[in-house]
Amino acid sequence: MKIIIINGPNLNLLGKREPEIYGNMTFADYFSELKQRYPSVALEYYQSNIEGELIDKIQQVGFSYDGIILNAAAYTHTSVGIGDAVNAIATPVIEVHISNTFARETFRHQSFVSANAKGIIIGFGLKSYELALQSFL
Q1: What is the pLDDT of residue 6?
Q2: How many other CB atoms sit within 10 Å of the CB of residue 28?
Q3: Of 30, 45, 65, 97, which is the active-site residue?
Q4: Which of 58, 59, 83, 123 has the most CB within a 10 Å radius?
Q5: Quick check: is 45 catalytic?
Q6: How far is CA 89 from CA 3, 41, 45, 54, 68, in A?
Q7: Is 109 a catalytic residue?
């Protein structure tokens, strides 16, 4: 099984950025642990702060992978283009968020990804990614 995690803007700062919301662990450390827990899964990771690069990656893997775990971060709430990219591909997408976006600012309650995602996992910290991975298994 071939799964990719795609993270959007500012998630490269996990472990440093707002630890009261996002925790103290870097995503690189978490990803290493996840790969160790699921050695039978060909698990990849991609992160970009640039909207067009995220769309390019979704399109690149969207017809050949078994699943995409997507945390579009702030672009979730603003990017029609990312939502359209998810709609245009064949690979199923699970939308994830580390924090409970509905417990935060009102603008975070809107998602342009959700309507085109297979499912949504919100608010379980970094565990959200593992829950999404398990949904593909």
Answers
A1: 98
A2: 12
A3: 97
A4: 58
A5: no
A6: 14, 21, 18, 13, 11
A7: no
Active-site hit among 22, 30, 65, 129: 22
State which residues form the domain around 30.
2-136
Per-10-residue mean pLDDT, the chain, length 137? 97 82 84 97 98 98 98 93 98 94 73 94 95 97
Looking at residue 23, its pLDDT comes to: 73
Tally: H helices and E strands in the chain: 5, 5
> In the numeric block, which tokens belong to residue 46?
């991609």
How far apart CA 122 and CA 33 sit, in angstroms, is 20
Contacts 24+ apart (CB under 8 A), 34-40: 34/129, 34/130, 34/133, 37/130, 38/133, 38/137, 40/1
Give the per-residue pLDDT at 41.
98
Give the domain CATH number at 98: 3.40.50.9100
Q: What pTM did the predictor assign?
A: 0.92
In 3D, which of 71, 74, 82, 86 has the Cα closest to residue 27? 71
pLDDT confidence of residue 54: 98
